[in-house]
Amino acid sequence: MHLQQFWEKYRESQRHFSRIDLPHADFYQANLSGFDFSQSNLAFADLIWADISGASFEGADLRRSVAIWMQGLWTDFSGANLSGVDFSCANIQSADLSRADFTAAKLSGAQMTGACARQACFQAANLWGVGASQVDFSGACMKETTLSTANFQAAQFVATDLSSADLSGANLENVNLRDANLSGANLRGTSLKGANLRGANLSMSDLTDTDFTHAHLTRTIFSDRGYEDTLIA
To answer: Which tops the pLDDT comparison, 223 or 133?
Structure first.
C-alpha cells in the first residue's frame, strides 16, 4: 500500500490496516487513535506528536521509528519490533509492551505508569528519567540499560535481568525485585526503601549511598564491593 492510498482510506473512515506494508510512513501529528496496525510493517515511521491511543501495533515492525511526544495511552505494542525507536517524552501509560523488543531504544522522559512490559527486551535502551511507577517489568531483559533518575515506585521486576544497568539516583521504593539479577548494576544513590529483594543478585554492584531501609533481603546475594555509606536498617 502506498501512503496516498492509506490517506484515501483514512478519509473514508477505515481504521483496520493490519498486515499493511508502509515503511517510512509520515504520520506527523496524525490522529490514529483506535486504529489496527497489527502485524504491519511501519519501520522508520514518523509518529512525532501523533495520537495513537488505544491503537493496536501487536506484532508490528516499528523499528527505528521516531515518536517523540507521541500520545499512546492504552496502546497495544505486544510482541512488536521497537528496536532503535525514539519514544522520548512519549506518553505510553497503561500500554501493553509485553514481549516487545526495545533494544537500543530511546525512551528518556517517557511516561509509562501502569504499563505492562512483561518479558520485553530493553537491552542497552535509554530510559533516563522515565515515569514508570507500577509498571510490570517481570521477566524483562534490561541488561546494560540506562535507568538513572527514573521513578519506578511500586513497579514489578520479578526475575528481571538488570545486570550492568545504570540505576543511579532512581526511585525503587516498594518495588518487587524478587529473584532479579542486579549483578554489576550501578545503584549509587538509589532508594530501595521497602523493596522486596528476596533472592536478588547484587554481586559486584555499586551500592554507594544506596538506601535499603526496611527492604526485604532474605537470600539476597551481596559481594564485598561498593558498600560505602550504604544504609541498611
So the answer is: 133
